[in-house]
C-alpha cells in the first residue's frame, strides 16, 4: 500500500478551520451511524479518491475526534472507543518498522482493509442514491389506474358414462323384481304404528288391561295379520315400559299380558 | 413513431408553443391509462402543457386503438380506456372440474331414458324414493333432459324426456338403442342378485344394506 | 387488421388452431393493460386460448408501444404496462405518497440488492453498524425484500434477496440491471473480504457459497 503516507507532518497545531470542523463533528455525533460512518465523513476532508486515502492521517483525525469528545465530556458509544483503540493499534503498526518476530497481519494489510471497507460503504451509498433516483413506480411511472381483477370462474362439469346409466337402471329394475318380497306390507303392522295407537289409548286405561285389547280393529280375522299385530303391540308395550310410561305384568305362563299406565306424581 | 420528427426543430419553441400532436396523444394516452376514473377534456388540458388540444389528441388516440385489445371510450362527458369487450373472457380464469354424476341423478336419468316420457311421480314410483328438485334441475341444466308434453291424466303432470345432447353424450342414435333388461342381464349387470323366488331370511330388513353393498360394487 | 383475412377460411379450424398472431397480440394487450401487476408468460398463456404463443405476441406488442405514452416492460419473469417515465409530470394526481424510507433502510436495501443473497451479519459488516429489526421489517413489509435460502456457514444464517416487486418499483428487468453493478464488481467492491488476521470460521465452506451467490445474480 504505497498510497499510505508515513510522513509525520500534521502533528502541528490544527488550523482554525480544522478545529471548527472537528467541533462541528462532535456536536453532530448523534448524526453518525457509527464509527465507520464517521470515518467515511472524516476521509472526505482529505479531498482525495478513497483509494488513495491516507489511513494513517485518518486514524489521527479519528483519535483527535475522540480526544476532543472526551475533553468536551461528550459520552461516546462503546463502539467509537473500540474503533479508537483499534486505530491507535493500527497507527502504531503503521509507524513502527515491522517486527519480523511478530505474527499476524501487517499494518499495511489492516490499513488496506479499512480503506476497502470505507470504499465499499461509499460505493453502497452511491448505489443507493442511484437506485432511489431511478424512475419509480407510483412516482415517475404508473401502473393501470383501474386494474381489472381476474375473476375466477369455477365450473363443475358432471359426467356419466353409458355404463353408469345402465348400471343405475339395472339397480332399479332388480329392486323392482324383489318387490313382492319387500313390499308386501299390507299384512304388516309395524311397531311404530302400534306405538302410535297405544299412546293414544293408554291415557284412558288407568288399570291393568290385556294388551290384546290394544290390537287394531279387524286385524284378528287374518292369522297372518293377527300375528304381525300382536308382535308389534307387544314390542310397543315393551317400548312404553322402557320409556317409563307403563308397566307390564303376567300372572303366569301363557296368561294374558297386562299393561298399566304409570301416572306421574 | 412521429416523435422523432418533432424533437429537433421544436426543441427551442417548446417553452412557448404547445407540444406537437403526436406528443399530446402520448400524454392523453398515459393519463387515461393511469387514471382511476374517466377524465374530461377539461381535466386533460389542465394537466397538459399550455395550448394543448386534448379533444383533437383524443380523436387521434381513439383511432389508433381501433380494433386493438384496448379501446378509448367515452363515459358520460369523460374519457377512459377499457379492454375490448370481445376479450372479456381473458379476465376470467376458468377452472373446470369434472365430477361424477350422483347416483340419484344417474338413476333418475336412466329412468327417464328408459321410460320417457315420464312424470316425476312415475320416477318416484320406480325408484321407490322421492326425487329431489335439485336432481331434476341438475339434469335439466346439463341439458340431458327436458320437459316433454303434459300427460293426459288428472293434474296434467309434466313429463321428462331425454335430449339430443343426452344421446350425443352417450353415443346413442336414439333412446331405443339403450340396452334392454335382457341385455343388461347378459352383460352380467343383473347377475349378482339372488333370483326372485329364493327368499332369504330377514331379507326385508337387509335390503338397504345389500343395496349399498351392490352400488359399491358397481360404482368403481 | 388482419382479423378480417382469417375470419372466413379459418372459421372451422378455429376450434383447434390458435388464433392468428394479430389476435394474440390484442389478447396480450388486453390482459397486460387490465392488470396493475406484472403478468408472467405462463399466466398469459393459461388465460389465452390453447396453442397461443404469448412470448411472440409480447415481442410484437412491445414494439408497437415503443415511443408511446404507455410502455410494455419486462419485470423479472413477468410483463407489465407502465406509463412512460418522461410523462411523470402529468401524473401528480396519481402519485401515491409513499412512506419515506430512512437512510438506514435505503442503504440496507441497496446492500441486499447488490450483494444478494446476503446475511444480516454481512449487511452489518458493510454498514459498520447493527441493522435494526425495524429496518428489515419495513423492507419485508413493503415486499421489496424476502428471505432467501440459508447460507451453508455455521449457524446457517438466513439470507435476504430482493423481490420482483422491488424490480417493478425501480423499473428493473432483473437484478443484473442494477445501476453500476458491473463497475462495482470489477472494482471488487461486491466481494466479502475478511479483516486480515482474523481467520473466519468455516471460511473454506464460505468460499463456494459466496461464488454461488454472486453468480445467482447473473444466472437469470
TrEMBL record, chain A:
Short name of any one Pfam family annotated for the protein: SMC_ScpA
Gene3D superfamilies in the cross-refs: 6.10.250.2410
Name recorded for this polypeptide: Segregation and condensation protein A
The species this protein was found in: Marinovum algicola
Lineage: Bacteria, Pseudomonadati, Pseudomonadota, Alphaproteobacteria, Rhodobacterales
From TrEMBL, chains B, C:
Lineage: Bacteria, Pseudomonadati, Pseudomonadota, Alphaproteobacteria, Rhodobacterales
Name used for this protein in its record: Segregation and condensation protein B
The UniProt record lists the keyword Membrane: no
The organism of origin for this protein: Marinovum algicola
Statement: the UniProt record of this protein carries the keyword Cell division: yes
Positions of region (Disordered): 188-220
SUPFAM superfamilies on file: Winged helix' DNA-binding domain
Biological process terms in GO annotation: cell division; chromosome separation
Listed InterPro entries: ScpB_csome_segregation, WH-like_DNA-bd_sf, WH_DNA-bd_sf
Top-level lineage group: Bacteria
